[in-house]
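Bumping with the actual sequence this time:
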Amino acid sequence: MSINDLVQGKKLKVLIVYEGKRPNWACMELINELKVRGTTTIVLPVTRITAAINFEKAFFTSKLSLDDISGVLLRSIGLILTDDQFMRRTSLFKHMEKNGIPVMNPIDGLRKARDKYMSLCILSRHKIPVPQTIITEDLVTAYQAVTRLKVAVIKPLIGSRGFGSVKVEDPDVAFRIMKTILSFGQTLYVQEYIPKKNDRDIRAFVVGDSVIASMYRYAPVNSWKTNVAQGAKTEPCKLTDELTELAIKVTKILNLWYSGVDIVEGENGPFVLEVNGAPDWRGLREATGVNPAPFIVSYLISRAKK
């Protein structure tokens, strides 16, 4: 990264939006990177941000105006408990975009990536290889799908880090699991299990038009999950031109400015499992030595409202 990249951003004001009681590790990496550049940084949970129509200010908190921010690093829209919260928060960032404030990732792209159903639907329509998947609220249909697939993964429709995902081979065990899920008013998301070459998958980290780093993630002993949060071991991965092109392509299809693309090497070629629109990168940085924060900040600055 050039000296100009580091200096650029001094006169800008960037809002970082996070989830929880305090910013997590990835947010702190972004905050530190902005400090290095001398960029004015505001850090807020989404619940603190107010929007207004036909008022003197469009965006503000109880203590400061946000109308003059140059851009937003949107790490999370927070824990969603109601339809009202979801609509307000997604509309808030669309409102900011309509007012000329760039949001990274754009809210439409972040919504698509967060929804496994819609993201795979879109990717499939663009001829991207993705696993066979059933999304339903009908127990019999889901049971028949597991029977047909032989080995399946039951996942939360919205979730990350592998939490809540269950691999099943016995349709009757799947039946009991899925019946319980339905009893809590949840949707059934049943996906073909793609056997992983060497018990590993690939996380490619894309920013803009480039894959800045990638790593192999190896499942722990006696586990099938390759998420770092589930104890996966990592090592650097040099992507082929084909996989590099694939990772960049799916990021653009979903209208994301940066992403973590999960790819599995199947017997019949690569499959895209998921695309994360707010990826963490602690494991990636430890495995590759590459810190995505400067790349993310530089990309936002290149799009910032001057």
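The tokens above came from a reply further down the thread. The radius of gyration is 20 Å.
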